[in-house]
Amino acid sequence: MKGEFSVPAWAMILGWTLALGFLGFYFFVVHACLRALVPSFGFDGGAFGTAIFGTIVMSGFVIWLVWLAELPEMWFIHRRPQRLLAQGRCPSCGHQRTPDSTAPCSECGVSSEEIPPPYSMNWNAPRRFLAALVIGILAGISVAELTIANDEARMIRETRTINRKEWTFNRAWPATFGRVDWSCDRGFVPRGLLQVERSDSRR
After folding, report:
1. pLDDT higher than threshold 70 for residue 203
2. Continuous segment of H or E residues that includes residue 189
3. Which of 22, 27, 100, 107 has its CA 20 to 30 A from that of 158?
């Protein structure tokens, strides 16, 4: 591949930022919801492991996005030069050139014969996507666990001001469907996935 055709640093940074942001958000939502489906309050190794396993399984729903890792290269190295050449411009710098000429560009010295071939997926795409996937999973799980810990700390604080013997809490977004029952006698009792819904006693 010719050195004149490359992906700008800003495009590479933007692409990775968007990819990691999307994957991190996706796995944050997935892990937080899975943790709410497994009855636990506070850190529980079994619930944590179950949620992690489910989160990894759910990564199968974003495997089809593997080609997104190649978008900057697809555009700047393969699609854009072809488009510029079809418009009668230099495929590297975009300077106007003589139609059907194979002579080097008067501005950058690149000829039409140096244009990269059409894009074809190789092993770079899966490798890049796998790296983004791992980072996204780790970031999503970390943020989800931090959010859950803060939410449960909020519940503990609120029990000190509740003038009732029983109470039902809703978990924080995105797991607002989750319920945690509290009573003076039993403490916090999170509800299971198939547990019958009790009447909400929140104010």
Report:
1. no
2. strand 187-190
3. 27
